[in-house]
Amino acid sequence: MNRRTVLSGALLGATAAAASGSATAKEAHMPKAKGRTGPRNLITDVAGIRIGQAHDANARTGVTAILAETPAVAAVDVRGGGPAGRETDVLKAENLVQEVDAIVLSGGSVYGLAAADGIAAWMGMRGRGYGMGGGAGVPPSPIVPSACLYDLANGGDKQWGMDTPYRRLAVEALEGASDTFVLGTAGAGYGAQAGSLKGGTGSASAVTSDGWTVGAIAAVNSVGSVTAPDSRQFWAAPFEIGSEFGGLGTDQLSAAHEDWGRAKFAPRPRENTTIAVVATDVALSRVECQRMAIMAQDGLSRAVRPAHAPFDGDTVFVLSTGKITLEDGPARNIAVSRLGNIAADVLARAIARGVYEATAYDGSADKTWKGLV
């Protein structure tokens, strides 16, 4: 097909579209995303994934545990300038262990890294983890990467001395792991702030035409805004399925290049982060999971403005539970590309849902999305 044929076809298509354009202006700006969510519209629609959450209302912080029912292939991509994480290097393709037992998202900045200690100890007691064939009395080593967000200055009581709550909260979350969980002011996003709005924990899923499932969970504590300036419309609106975060459409999605809208005022390093896990039931290699994680990071850019700033610790993990096998061959790279693009869309939706569902703390005057007028 030559260039003239392509251009002629494009012009004919545009003319036909104009001739059939009978939709009203209101309909033209309604959400246009096509697709199907899983039955829960949560990351747990991915077979083999369960979620546990716990929080401390007094300290205004929390933990989200993402449990792989059997060890899952994993990867991570870190884009923010101020991350706080644990065992992210173990996920590099050249390293020994290719699977993880769980991933932890937590509040508490560096203190929140203790959450993974609790989960590792809980799993090790039950014989789960990587082992080198040691003798009696040698425990396995559970692989539990983690990422934390900064919620130390949100008004909660952080005077915990030597006894931080994160190990306890992580065990509580893990023991309550289920296929259903609360969105908004819950888990790792309990103490979060998304720009000038209350942040939270969000999740979403998508099912492809051939039955693959992709899900995401995110704790949203971004420096950037999730809504357009002077609007309640989410930047993620073009990807919304149904009215999962308000159904307001896209007609006000515009901004000047220096207009950050409801971003945080005077952001400071290491105090802002969106941390997330994306999962799929398709069996992928570590390298393929890495590519999916890189592509999934675009979901942050679709949902938050600005994203990946020096102030942020943006981190995205990917899990493959391996329930559906792909054939090797040229089509495999196309499949990975499809999964990565879907992952970005699903993550954008999860971020918007986390802020959409967030509620203020008891007795506080925090600004929430649902409180905007």
Written description of the protein model:
With 373 residues, this protein is of the alpha+beta class. The model is unreliable at 1-29 (pLDDT under 50). It has seven helices and eleven strands. The protein starts with a helix and ends in a 17-residue tail after the last helix. It is globular and about 65 Å long. Helix 3 (114-125) packs across helix 4 (166-175) and helix 5 (286-296) crosses helix 7. The longest helix has 27 residues, at 330-356. Strands 1, 2, 3, 4, 5, 8, 9, 10 and 11 form a nine-stranded mixed beta sheet that branches. Strands 6-7 form a two-stranded antiparallel sheet. It has helices at 3-19, 25-28, 114-125, 166-175, 286-296, 298-303, 330-356; strands spanning 49-56, 61-78, 85-86, 99-106, 146-148, 193-194, 197-198, 200-207, 213-221, 273-282, 315-324.
